[in-house]
Specification:
By secondary structure, the protein is an alpha+beta fold. The protein contains five helices and five strands; from the N terminus they run βββββααααα. Helix 3 (about 110-125) packs antiparallel against helix 4.
Length: about 190
């Protein structure tokens, strides 16, 4: 039996070990939206996938559909976001953004705007050397942009065009808007 192989770019949002050597990944893909996919044997030292599926890495991923389960058969890391990985505060912020996506995106559906938003946010964060309050504002603004793209913060479309410097004094309003979106979504 032959399977069709799909190629897409993806950002690894999270991973969970299952069985002896397998791992299931939550991936935001360019073509399919957020999916869960299994990589068999990926925890073996000899696995060719092992080093291309790190948390938050941007990869080209080869997938097949087996029943109703995505399987990862190939991966090539395009960017490992070294500057983010080497900064614990940035890594924590990206982790919270990934948790937000995993929490709010249900079902598999392509969303090119969301893909662009997340990929551009990570690329921006990779290039910037800020910590503390600026990083907090970045995280809140990115969260609001994601929620707005998903339709959970419709009345806050203004966040899509707001720049980081403009958002510095709006932390209270951003937190309130995020909390309201969580309440209304019931997720």
């Amino acid at each position: 039996m032959s399977y069709r192989i799909y190629q897409t770019e993806g950002i690894i949002l999270s991973k969970k070990d299952i069985g002896e050597a397998d791992r299931i990944f939550s991936i935001l893909t360019q073509e399919f939206g957020r999916i869960d996919a299994i990589a068999q044997g990926v925890r073996h030292i000899k696995s060719k996938l092992r080093y291309n599926l790190n948390n938050f890495s941007h990869s080209r991923i080869g997938l097949t559909m087996s029943g109703d389960l995505w399987r990862i058969i190939d991966a090539e890391e395009l960017s490992d976001w070294t500057n983010i990985r080497n900064n614990p505060q940035k890594l924590a912020a990206v982790s919270r953004i990934a948790e937000l996506i995993n929490r709010m995106v249900r079902g598999q559906e392509p969303d090119f705007d969301l893909w662009d938003e997340v990929k551009n946010a990570l690329a921006f964060l990779e290039k910037q050397d800020f910590n503390g309050k600026d990083l907090r504002i970045f995280e809140l603004l990115t969260g609001l942009r994601i929620l707005s793209r998903l339709g959970y913060a419709e009345e806050h479309k203004k966040w899509l065009n707001l720049q980081l410097k403009e958002a510095e004094n709006m932390e209270f309003f951003m937190v309130s808007a995020i909390n309201k979106a969580f309440q209304e979504s019931q997720l």
